[in-house]
Automatic annotation (TrEMBL):
This is Putative glycogen debranching enzyme N-terminal domain-containing protein. InterPro entries: 6-hairpin_glycosidase_sf, 6hp_glycosidase-like_sf, GDE_N_bis. Residues 1-87 are annotated as: Disordered. Residues 53-63 have a biased composition (Low complexity). GO terms for biological process: carbohydrate metabolic process. Pfam families: GDE_N_bis (PF14742). Residues 105-272 form the Putative glycogen debranching enzyme N-terminal domain. Residues 12-24 have a biased composition (Basic and acidic residues).
Length: 730
């Protein structure tokens, strides 16, 4: 995992071992009647041990049947316990409408791994297996239809004279809100009478327990209304069927129907999964007036349309409400592992999504301001966050530091994009406390060290701190608050020291160190965290803040990011391929980081290194196409070659907030949209090489109104729609 998840999920040291699936061949039977083909189920079909008409992977439900022949897991030398691993998600279809999830394989929910319907981190239904005429349909297609729904199609041959053609089509629509609609269509020339069984079961386990391999056995069911119900000491859930089944067997967990279908006719059954004591699921992203504008992208590169559409849909699916303050909406980090608030990533994603409006930024800032450590605490002003693995060369990083430094940056840039002055003023005290924490923690030194005693000074932390100081000073000046001069002086001292201390000379022209050790020695390994040096932040009048590197150092960094050692052909590796400890699947040691790649694209383009930016952009667009335009937060950094495809990471979040928001940032960076709402201007600095040809963006939000811009094939930008009174800056 990338960092320790929220409490409802598995901690880093409790990941479950992999399970190896068994292949169990099974069969069914078919009989006929004179006119109507009457297909009874085989007499041996029972509950959880339903047979199948074909060989398919099957793992017994935990606590039932024979055990899987799992390989002996690797044991950790410290504890002797099996090394924990997360169940794989790379092949799963993850329907998201938080707090609801539906995680599926090819169609049947078999109760293996993460299969099931979830709400608030608890699995309400683990198993939902459909049998028609005693057999499982042959799965022919499984695909996402939207961020919160998936469609599964299976076929059956039940007529003796049907030949090779299926005569029954089974279509299932599964939604994250806990509903599934099963539709049978008769493709035969004669009417069919089909017995249909749905086998249901659950463990009501928390996702953390499932991830750790401690889900436990299925619970006994009871008949409830027109379905089944399961209960444990902490929760209860039920499945209600419409139409009601003709038979409900609690002991076997079965619902049965006899459906009659005329030629070409259909019949449907809808299942509704509910948590007892909770009302219908109302996802924050399904509100009539959501915080994200419905922007659209068009252009010569046809991939930009589905990329932006999918990104916005994924962000809407990941929206959560603050339980105590329902008007405040923020983003969860990603599904399925990180469906809670991760402060640094919520702020980063809200910042990248500013072109879709400022409401998400405002809700995120208000939510996190309430978590800020109060006066009297030794670290007053800090916004707490979990620790994150930083790879083999550095200790884990405190994401609370990153979140605290991002807070004033997001507030300052949201004001430029159109956050009302009154709202900005209300949030200003929290931003001031963040800036006070920065100066107090840095003390008399030029660097912001790690919070633990004797910690290193990280390169990306200095970039965050420098940007926070400059944009924070700009914000304080705008509201006549004290402290701006002190922040700028500290930032200037940081920049002078950084250019000397963090630059490692070598035969290639040098590189930025990833950190300074406590004794002042540079840690020279090249990783993707250096891209934060290119993300300097937006000041007034369309100006970007100056960076920590000088012009020559920036050029060397740009060239390094464009080399095969860093650019895998699909995006930017987390650690260079030539570095010791490189691992293409290592989430901090070589996997492609989508967020870092997008930061590199935007930063390189803004600095004038369009060739390197365009190469990374095209690679990431190519990767997105292989992932159905729904980018995970990371994937393997294997070098691209002719005919290859990006390798998914089995533990990646997909969707992920920062990955989805990265698409918005990259596309708007191509147009170079830099607003300054307080000054009533918007400046356009497009990428002159127009790497994607003509590009049009409509439905963006600047100064609270709709904004549209078009970039021609010659790299010229033109505003097509804007707020009244908004002037084009120079």
């Amino acid at each position: 995992m990338h960092q320790q998840p929220t409490p409802s999920y598995a901690p880093d040291d409790e990941r479950p071992p992999w399970n190896r699936r068994e292949w169990i061949p099974q069969d069914g039977a078919v009989t006929t009647a004179r006119q109507t083909i009457d297909v009874p189920p085989p007499p041996t079909a029972r509950g959880p041990n339903l047979s199948a008409s074909r060989a398919r992977p099957s793992t017994p439900t935990p606590g039932r049947g024979r055990r899987s022949t799992a390989a002996t897991p690797v044991r950790t030398p410290q504890t002797g316990r099996p090394a924990p691993e997360l169940p794989p998600t790379h092949a799963a279809l993850v329907c998201v409408a938080l707090p609801g999830l539906a995680i599926s394989g090819e169609g049947q929910l078999d109760g293996r791994g993460l299969d099931g319907f979830y709400r608030g981190g608890r699995r309400l239904l683990a198993r939902c297996q459909v049998r028609v005429a005693g057999r499982e349909p042959l799965a022919v297609q499984a695909r996402m239809t939207s961020a919160d729904s998936a469609r599964f199609v299976g076929t059956l041959r039940v007529s003796p004279s049907a030949g090779p053609d299926p005569d029954v089509v089974v279509e299932r629509f599964r939604r994250a809100d806990g509903t599934e609609r099963i539709t049978l269509r008769n493709a035969a020339a004669r009417p069919l009478r089909l017995p249909v069984e749905v086998a249901l079961g659950t463990d009501l386990a928390e996702l953390a327990s499932i991830a750790c391999g401690r889900a436990g056995p299925e619970l006994p069911a009871t008949v409830h209304d027109s379905g089944l119900r399961w209960a444990t000491a902490g929760a209860a859930a039920s499945v209600i069927a419409d139409p009601p089944p003709s038979d409900a067997l609690a002991s076997a967990g079965l619902l049965r129907w006899e459906l009659e279908l005329p030629p070409g006719g259909t019949a449907a059954v809808e299942l509704r999964v509910r948590l007892d004591g909770a009302g219908p699921l109302r996802p924050a992203g399904h509100a009539t007036t959501g915080p994200l504008a419905p922007a659209r992208a068009t252009g010569d590169d046809l991939r930009v349309t589905p990329l932006l559409d999918t990104a916005i849909a994924d962000l809407q699916a990941l929206l959560l409400r603050d339980a105590a303050h329902p008007a405040d909406i923020h983003l969860a980090a990603g599904a399925p592992w990180r469906c809670g608030l991760v402060p640094a990533e919520a702020l980063a994603a809200a910042r990248m999504a500013l072109p879709l409006g400022t409401r998400l930024a405002a809700g995120t800032l208000r939510t996190l301001a309430r978590t800020q450590l109060p006066e009297g605490n030794p670290r007053a002003g800090l916004i707490p966050g979990p620790r994150r693995d930083a790879g083999p060369f550095l200790p884990p990083a405190c994401t609370g530091t990153e979140a605290t430094l991002l807070f004033p940056v997001l507030l300052a840039e949201a004001r430029r994009w159109g956050l009302p002055e009154q709202e900005t003023r209300r949030l200003l005290p929290a931003a001031e406390r963040c800036l006070t924490w920065l100066r107090t923690t840095a003390g008399a030194g030029p660097y912001l060290p790690d919070p633990q005693p004797g910690g290193p000074a990280r390169c990306d932390t200095q970039a965050h701190a420098y940007r926070a100081a400059l944009l924070g000073a700009d914000l304080l000046d705008a509201f006549d608050r004290p402290g701006a001069t002190e922040l700028r002086e500290w930032a200037q001292a940081l920049r002078a020291a950084f250019r000397a201390d963090f630059w490692v000379e070598d035969r290639g022209g040098g590189r930025p160190a990833v950190a300074l050790a406590p004794d002042g020695r540079p840690v020279p390994h090249l990783g993707s965290t250096v891209v934060h040096l290119l993300d300097t932040g937006l000041l007034g009048s369309g100006r970007l803040a100056p960076g920590l590197l000088d012009a020559v150092q920036t050029e060397h960094l740009a060239r390094l990011l464009g080399t095969p050692a860093m650019d895998a052909g699909w995006g930017l590796r987390g650690l260079g391929a030539k570095e010791a400890g490189h691992n293409p699947f290592g989430h901090r040691t070589g996997a492609v980081r989508v967020h870092d790649t997008a930061l590199a694209v935007a930063g390189l383009a803004a600095a004038g290194y369009e060739k390197e930016a365009s190469g990374l952009l095209r690679g990431l667009l190519d990767a997105a196409e292989h992932f159905g335009h729904r980018l995970p937060d990371m994937f393997a950094g294997e070098q691209r070659f002719s005919g290859s495809a990006p390798l998914p990471h089995p533990a990646a979040c997909r969707p992920a907030a920062t990955a989805a928001a990265s698409a918005i940032m990259m596309l708007t960076a191509l147009a170079g949209v830099r607003p300054d709402t307080p000054a009533g201007t918007v400046t356009l600095c497009p990428v002159r090489s127009a790497p994607l040809g003509e590009l049009g963006l409509t439905g963006l939000r600047v100064a609270g109104s709709s904004f549209a811009v078009r970039v021609s094939r010659l790299g010229l930008a033109m505003v097509e729609e804007a707020a009244d009174g908004l002037q084009l800056g120079v």
